[in-house]
What does this fold into?
Amino acid sequence: MRPVPTLSRRRALQGLALAVPGFSWACATSSARRTTGARPTVAIDPVPFTRVTLNDGFWAPRLELNRTVTIPHGFAKCEQEGRLRNFERAARVLSGVRDGGYEGQMPFDDTDVYKLLEGASYSLQRHPDAQLGGYLDAVIAKIAAAQEPDGYLTTYKTIDPTKSPARWVKPGPRWTQELYGSHELYNSGHLFEAAWAHHRATGQTSLLDVARRNADLLCRTFGPDKLRTPPGHQIVETGLVKLAAVTGERRYERLARFFLDQRGDGGGHRLAGPMNQDHLPVTRQREAVGHAVRAMYMYCGMADIAALDGDAGYREAGLALWDDVFERKVYLTGAVGARRDGEAFGAAFELPNRTGYGETCASIGSVYWNQRLFLQTGDARYVDMLERTLYNGVIAGVSLSGDQFFYTNPLEADGRFAFNRGARTRAPWFDCSCCPTNLARFIPAIPDYIYATQGDVLYVNLFAASRATIALGGGSVALAQSTLYPWDGAIAIAVTPDRPRPFELRVRIPGWARGRPLPSELYRYAGDEAESVSLSVNGQPVRGELAGGYASLSRTWSAGDVVSLNLPMPPRRVTADRRVVDDRGKVALARGPLVYCAEAADHRDASVLDLAVPDGGRLTVGSRPDGDNILGGACVLGAAAVDRAGRPRQLTAIPYYAWSNRGPGEMAVWFPRG
It folds into this structure.
């Protein structure tokens, strides 16, 4: 097992101050660390997205679309469907006026507002907007007015605790009725995450003050000699750690660990079972079970505690769970959670295509988790998995127009089954709108995953045309990437240090360019090997030492130095482990980090579910033959195919993330090999 570098808790706090939603293992408070006999483990700091400017044709338009369409769309829906009125109504109840009940069908509708606040705050950091800032101030004022005097904040309980918005949540006073279903602590967690983001973006404490009052209440309510029930839906743990970092209150961090330590401990509460990851102590869990989103968030919390306390038990359990997920239970797109029943993980190699769930929120949680593990270990396989999920499982969740969404992400559709929470295609909103609002908070911080530093080492993790100014070893280095990635694998990185100085540049060589679609044996490329990767500095070929998935370039760098990386991107066939029954005898198509699919809109004369792609046929790369620009200039793949009657056909494959932007219809990622 790779040893983990250690740093002081103060150093860890500094790392958190720079980190963004993907978060850092550098998460701690400035006071003395917990006395566990181990030092906190913090290896690498992400370069925050505020230091990175995208100017590419892939991600920059998506961030702008999120700012101008997705976030306003989300707030408009929250106004239309009562999410904001619930805060207003709760405030009136506190003043002695009852004028209606809770609007909505979920006990966690409050979090939609919090997540939009978080995403809008991140957008404000890069795009100051007085009108948006004023709107956020008004929303925060409504939230503050709905908070009970002791700090409690869950609107449906305040409005009328004798009624429940969902039949699966029992009504009753706060905390007392099956906490794993009430989502009171889940609401708190997203409040904390939003408050941290808003404070970082604006310097204001209006929402942070609300969060602190709520966190103080949790500290008074839960603990070894108090209520010992853990949350049902995890995220309060990571939110508490962020609050600890920004406030210096270590009791918030201790409460985060307390909640995790209670899982699987039947001495203080009735165990909620595997669906809630409450069947075994977290340090003994080795198999990913239950609700996939809850699991992802819990694994992030475990990673934070492992970093804070240098806790080997937490770390070993987290790495074992990662092995289980990404060696046995992940789709080629990076999506996790195979079962619609319970939005849950299935058994090992249970990965059905048409009925697969692959919730968008679970993919976002997977990115958060993989980023944490990279920052702890410096191992590129976690970034490989992060990239695969980001380009496929995550952004498939939002339409190219920015206002239509997938809750679920199957790898096959027949055009008739309403797989998307009652819809056959993308939908503008859901009764449970966790995914649209999660995307709104996630997308603005995507640049956070591009670069990282560790002492005099600078990591290049993702590839996108961009500029960044990075603090490194007492100085600064400006990087400028030029590339058309993910459509082209040619990447040029101009390196401009503040003065000629030695340091190490580690450039990730993606697993997909080294013959591995994912960092496990679950999927493999079929057919001929791809061309080899080439790397040069100032036009001179170099052989950077490949370690942990990175080419290491150590030299004295000067202004004008340029690193050129060429990642060949031939279209490739992918096969799955034979234990994945749904994919046995089938092939998928991929190019670079992207997974491809065929959908009905491009196959008017044949059903895509009836097409086979024989081995050995030529795969081509091109643009849409009809000039249709609806897919935003995406490269498409072509393949010789045959239908069920043996007639030759031509298959056109588009990036998986772009499917269902032209209405409902058939779609397939996996094809019989013919």
In short: The first helix runs from residue 9 to 18. The two ends are 43 Å apart (CA to CA). The longest strand covers residues 475-483.
